[in-house]
């Protein structure tokens, strides 16, 4: 029986594209760069850096500094401007734009079902503390019991240690008591299954809920479909 629902953060609860738009607005304001091209360059740099993280090319203890350097090299934007713009965006992004559709309602209902909740998030470019601020500004913080970010815990998804830390925090005796929900097949889905937790992948390309194995894993079109799974388990 599932006792804890653990969420990925960016792309699952929070909208990463909208955040980069907000960051780009501040970059344009500070150094006068074209907004549209800045958005495109940031997202391209993000995708490249995310792939580098998957290949293990970053040191977990230095991942923010190292990833910022890559983004600066790729875009030509000074690191200090990137830092300032990301800090500003943390406070300026509208909560309704920061939220993924249905995320707040799902988190609220999961708590109302009596389950414990957590966030397990990787980091690039900005620290987990920035994400914590956005979580509070959107109201999600009211429905999340604890948050774990890679720069704070020293390990990243899909490493088993990251998921084990969540299990240990809640004193779970069986990995199947943890359900992890995310939009990355590599970091979230395979990481959860590799830790023997229940994995839930959000994939907008599928039309219906897909059950894998003996309800050991699921693929769902949108986060609101999570409630259907939980209520049946």
Query: How many beta-strand runs?
Result: 7
Helicity range of the residues? 40-55%
Rg from Cα: 18 Å
CATH H-level superfamily of the largest domain: HAD superfamily/HAD-like
Largest sheet properties: 7 strands, mixed
Order of helices and strands: EHHHHHHEHEHHEHEEEH
Please count the helical segments: 11
Weakly predicted, low-confidence segments: none
Structural shape: globular
| Strands ordered across the widest β-sheet | 3-2-1-4-5-7-6
Mean pLDDT across all residues, rounded?
Answer: 95
Number of domains in the coordinates?
2
In angstroms, what separates the terminal alpha carbons?
Answer: 7 Å
Pairing-aware structural class of the strands and helices?
alpha/beta
CATH 2nd-level architecture of the largest domain: 3-Layer(aba) Sandwich
- CATH class categorisation of the largest domain: Alpha Beta
The CATH topology of the largest domain is what? Rossmann fold
- Sheet-strand content, in percent, reads 5-15%
Keywords:
alpha/beta; 7 strands; single chain; Rossmann fold
Give an overview of the whole structure.
- This protein is of the alpha/beta class and 233 residues long.
- The protein has 2 domains: 4-14 and 98-231, 3-Layer(aba) Sandwich (Rossmann fold); 16-95, DNA polymerase, domain 1.
- It contains 11 helices and 7 strands.
- It has helices at 16-31, 35-54, 63-75, 79-92, 95-98, 103-112, 128-138, 150-153, 160-169, 185-194, 226-232, and strands at 4-7, 116-121, 146-149, 178-182, 198-202, 210-212, 217-220.
- The chain has a 7-stranded mixed beta sheet with strand order 3-2-1-4-5-7-6, sandwiched between helices.
- Helix 7 (128-138) links the parallel strand 2 and strand 3.
